[in-house]
Amino acid sequence: MKILFDVKHLYYLPQYMPVYQELLKKNVECRFIFYNQEDESLQYVCQNVEKQEKLPVYWVSSWGNAFEYYQKEKADWIIFGNAVDNIHQLHRVSKTVLMQHGIGPKSCYYDVSKNLTTVRFVEGKHRLNRLYDLYPSGNFVDTGYAKLDPIFSKTNNVNQCSLVDLGLDPNKKTILYAPTFYPSSLECFSKSFPKEFENYNIIVKPHFFSVTKKKYAKQRTLLNSWDKFKNVYLAPTSSYNLLPFMAISDVMISDASSAIFEFSALNKPVIWCDFYKLRWSYRGFFSCRFKKRLDSDIEFFHQLSDRVASYKELYDVVEGVILTPNKKIKLIEQLAGKTDGNCSVRIVDYLFKD
Fold first, then answer.
1. What are the residue boundaries of the structural domains of the chain, listed by start?
2. Within 135-250, where are the H helices?
3. Three-state SS for 23?
4. Which residues have a Cβ under 8 Å from the Cβ of 156 and sit 6 or more positions away?
5. Along the 354 residues of the chain, how does pLDDT read in single tens digits?
6. Alpha-carbon distance values, 327 to 94, 263, 308 (Å)
C-alpha cells in the first residue's frame, strides 16, 4: 500500500502525524507532499521540520505540480487537509481522504465537502449528522480527531516542553493565548497585555498565517512587542503544533478557533474572546459576511468556555477561572469525537478495510 499526505500548509501536520505513526507500524509506504514557499525563511522552516521529523518528502511548486504527481504515482490513498480542485479526476487513479486540519466554528468546515472525497473522517456525532444532512451522498466516518491522540494515548507521547525550557517561571500559572488569523481578537488586545498579566506566564501561539502572510503585518508588530516581556514566550513559526503548549498551560484564551474545542477536551478552562478586529468589508452593512464566515457551531462556545465581550473584561475572567475552574466538558465528545487516543488507529483500520 502507498499513501500520500498533501501538506499544503505546515499546520496540517499535527493532524497527519498520529496517522503516519500508525501506518509506519504496518510498514506502509508513505510520502508527504510539501509545497515550495516563496518566502526563504518559511522555506527554511519547512525544510527543517522535514529533517527534524525525518519525513519522506516530495517537493512541489504548486497544486498543478502536485496534481500531476498524484496522477503519475497512482497511490492507494491521498490524504488532504482541505478541499482541492479536480478531485474527481484524481479518483480515476486513487482513493482520497479528507481529514480537515481544524474543527473550528467557521463555515468552511462544512463547505469543503462540496467536492466529495472517497471518505471524510469526522469528529463526533454532531458534525457527522450535519454533514450527512448537507451532503446525503457523502461517505463520512466518525473516527474522532487524530490530532489529539498523542495527548490521550496510553504513552502520552506529546513532545512536551517545560516552562523552564521556554524561559518562563514554573511558580506562576500559565496562560496560553492561541488566536486565529481572521476573524481575530489579536489586534483588539492591549500593547501592555504582558504587563497587565505580569503575575502569569503567557505563551502566545499565533496562527501560521499571522506570522507568514503580508496582510497580517499589524498582528506581527503587536506580537513582536509582547515578545520583549520576560513573562512571554512567543512560539516561533517552526512550532507548528499547539499540543505541547496546551499540555503545560492552565488556561487558554482564544477566539473563533478550533483550539477552543481542543483545549476543552483536556478538561481545562477556556476563555472565548468574542470580539474581533474586522475589515471594513465585514462591518456595518456588510456584517452579514462576517456571520456567514462563522458557522452556527460557534454557539457551542457558550457551553464550553467563559465568554468575554471586550478586552477590558479579560483580566477578571482569567482570575476567576484560575481560582475556581468551571470545566465544561459535557459536549466535547459530540464536537471533537472520542478522546481515547485511538482515533488514528480507527482511521488506519478503515484505510486497510476499504
1. 2-154+338-353, 174-336
2. 149-152, 193-196, 217-226, 243-247
3. helix
4. 150
5. 999 999 999 989 999 999 999 999 999 999 999 999 988 888 999 999 999 999 999 999 999 999 999 999 999 999 999 999 999 999 999 999 999 887 765 677 788 899 999 999 999 888 899 899 999 999 999 999 999 999 888 665 676 789 999 999 999 999 999 988 877 889 899 999 999 999 999 999 998 888 778 877 889 999 999 999 999 999 998 888 999 999 999 999 998 777 887 888 888 889 989 887 654 444 443 344 444 545 455 566 667 778 899 999 999 999 998 887 655 555 666 667 788 999 999 999 999 997
6. 44, 11, 16
Architecture category of domain 174-336 in CATH = 3-Layer(aba) Sandwich (3.40)
Q: Within its chain, how far is the Cα of 300 from the centroid?
A: 18
Same fold: 2-154+338-353 with 174-336? yes
Give the domain 2-154+338-353 fold: Rossmann fold (3.40.50)
